[in-house]
Amino acid sequence: MEFTIERSTLAEAVARAARSLPARSTVPVLGGLLLDARAGRLRISGFDHEAFAEIDTPADTAVDGRVLVLGRRLADICKVLPEGRVGCALEGSRFTVDGGGTRFGLSTLPLEEYPALPTLPAVRGQVDAAEFAAALGQVVIAAGRDDTLPVLTGVQLRTEGETLTLSASDRYRYAVRSLPWKPEPDAAVETLEIVLPGRRLTDLARAVSRSGTLRVGLDPHGGSGLVSFETAGMRSALRLLDGRLPRYDKLFSLDGPAVAEVEREPLTEAVRRVGVVAEPNSPIRMDFSVDGAVLLQAGYEDDVASQRMAATLAASGDVSVAFNPQYLLDALQSFTSQRIRFELLGPGQRALLGGVPGSGESDATEVTHRHLLMSVRQLS
Q: At residue 363, does pLDDT exceed 50?
């Protein structure tokens, strides 16, 4: 094997493929990247049974061949190489990288121990990559962190007609965002519901966010256990998580809630301020009054903080609720509208947050992005 390539091109391709690699693995070859050079192309693949990435990029190939090297080590080398052309070659059992007078030699991993690359499912539809990445960022904050409950660490994707809905929940909060979906003609009537690992899906979405159209492939019968994502020059896949999230339609249907509206950015700053004296499990209390104000209060032992700010409330009387400060802050930061709408049932009950139409986001985004929080039962 022997090829030459621009450093920046190699670095970008290696970095994108390396995102599929596990942070740590007891099987060394699963931390490797497979480089396949032939016919004026370089293909870089990473696969650890749970995630897959394959990048195609132009290269001047003098000798065709394949090699398996530690992916993160190669990514680190690409970062420090001088700009310009880079020569790469397999010399015996060593892979060399030579550019600008700097030369590296990497030991290779056994190709025969590397798993067979997966066959990806057929494309079922497509979505705008940038919008998908933005929507994912709005919901993944509600995903759980407890790996003993894998499905709650995931993001659920549901396709129905020309709508793709992303959702995530850790049982204490629930975020949902819908966006346009263009199904393939033979998949237009399918309703599909799958759960993918939240962290890995976030890494993938960041890698493709500037790629234009994102083509999504999956097996409607779940046979392959993989969901594929394809853009120009890149193919990726993630393995499904078992299980489904609870249905959110009934959870989001509140019976006769009090409705409050507040300016989002001033409220976000107020939550940060008063939250300074709140311990992680110490709530921030919000007292909404019909006279046009909300009082935020937080405290722990003898330390207290409060801030009053303008708000509107449509209710028969004042309403008080309290939230985990970090959960409330995460929810507020996930919106881009100027004003936030709270639908409130009271202490210990559900509260639904959404953007106010005409206050900064498109009406479609405001309607399709919602965030459910549980109010603390006992107010401090």
A: no
For the domain made up of 2-113, the CATH class stated in words is alpha beta
Residue 94, burial from CB neighbour count under 10 angstroms (0-12, 13-18, 19+): middle
> What are the sequence ranges of the domains in the chain?
2-113, 123-239, 258-374
pLDDT reported for residue 190 = 74
pLDDT at residue 362 is higher than 90: no
Domain 258-374 has CATH 2.140.10.30: no
Cα 332 from Cα 264, distance rounded (Å): 7
Rounded to whole angstroms, the Cα distance separating 8 from 280 reads: 43
The pTM for the full model equals 0.89
Burial of residue 240 (number of CB atoms within 10 Å: 0-12, 13-18, 19+):
middle
Looking at domain 123-239, its CATH superfamily turns out to be DNA Polymerase III, subunit A, domain 2 (3.10.150.10)
Token couple for 26: 């007891």
Q: What pLDDT digit, counting tens, does each position of 87-101 carry?
A: 999 999 999 999 999
- Tokens 């106010």, residue? 356
The mean pLDDT value for 233-256 works out to 92
Place of tokens 């997966």: 118
Rounded-to-integer distance, Cα 205 and Cα 210, Å = 9
pLDDT of residue 207: 87
Secondary structure of the chain in HEC code, one letter for each residue: CEEEEEHHHHHHHHHHHHCCCCCCCCCHHHHEEEEEEECCEEEEEEECCCEEEEEEEECEEEECEEEEEEHHHHHHHHHHCCCCEEEEEEECCEEEEEECCEEEEEECCCHHHCCCCCCCCCEEEEEEHHHHHHHHHHHHHHCCCCCCCHHHHEEEEEEECCEEEEEEECCCEEEEEEEECEECHHHCCCEEEEEEEHHHHHHHHHHHCCCCEEEEEECCCCCCCEEEEEECCEEEEEECCCCCCCCCCCCCCCCCCEEEEEEHHHHHHHHHHHHHHCCCCCCEEEEEECCCEEEEEEEECCEEEEEEEECEEECCCCEEEEECHHHHHHHHHCCCCCEEEEEECCCCCEEEEEECCCCCCCHHHHHHEEEEEECCCCCC
Say if 2-113 and 258-374 have the same CATH topology.
yes
Position 367 scores a pLDDT of: 56
